[in-house]
Amino acid sequence: MQNLTNKIALITGGSKGIGYGIAASLLAEGMKVAITSRSQEAAEKAASELAKIGKGEVIGIEADVRNFDSQQNAVNVVIQKWGQLDLLVANAGIGHFASVEEITLEQWHETIDTNLTGVFYSIKAGLEGLKKSKGYFISISSLAGTNFFANGSAYNASKFGVTGFSQAAMLDVRKHGIRVTTIMPGSVATYFNDHQPNDKDGWKIQIEDLGQMVVDLMQMNSRTLPSKIEVRPTMPPGA
């Protein structure tokens, strides 16, 4: 089992939700973690909370995955501070849900640019660093990346794209010793789509569950690669 102490990670959209849960789990293993948010204030506030875990080291960086230069800067900050990049988690995402009649052009582009193009920008920006470390790239897709639903045209398109892109990228970069996994969660207890996590969310996947999954992937012998992982609640309502 690989010792993760002092390994270096960058997590996009890490100020809350799934990204925050992954950051917490990695820090508990002694990793050094950078989280990004489009808000510097949010990134620094989350980093301050995560620092209380007592292991590892954490920083917050303002970055927008929709802008390649912004994402490249985030990668540069990490490498300049800690000297390498062992793990990049492309987690940042949003959701606009409406019929094709009602969804706006702005909502469409924001969804695709964040959820899909943002994943491409992330691996593109981090590729040289990951080559040097023979590192790991993990994208957070969704069960909506293989299952379509009404009012999900933009979100489905983005997540179907992430799933396909990640699997193709896996084949492209494995010659460099880089591993690529896409994690596809179902219902997670997060703030996604303006939801407020509450006591009724106990049946859902918890952010620490996905954090543990990333730790397990990092610790797995590099000869083995779970390239696509579907994750769903064991017992959803009505099951």
Automatic annotation (TrEMBL):
Origin: domain of life: Bacteria
The alphabetized list of GO BP terms reads:
monocarboxylic acid metabolic process
Q: Give the SUPFAM superfamilies listed for this entry.
A: NAD(P)-binding Rossmann-fold domains (SSF51735)
Q: Which family does it belong to?
A: Belongs to the short-chain dehydrogenases/reductases (SDR) family.
Q: Which PROSITE patterns match?
A: ADH_SHORT
* Stored Pfam families: adh_short
What name does the UniProt record give this protein? Short-chain alcohol dehydrogenase
Cite the PANTHER family for this sequence: 3-OXOACYL-(ACYL-CARRIER-PROTEIN) REDUCTASE, 3-OXOACYL-[ACYL-CARRIER-PROTEIN] REDUCTASE FABG
All residue ranges annotated as the Ketoreductase domain in the record: 7-205
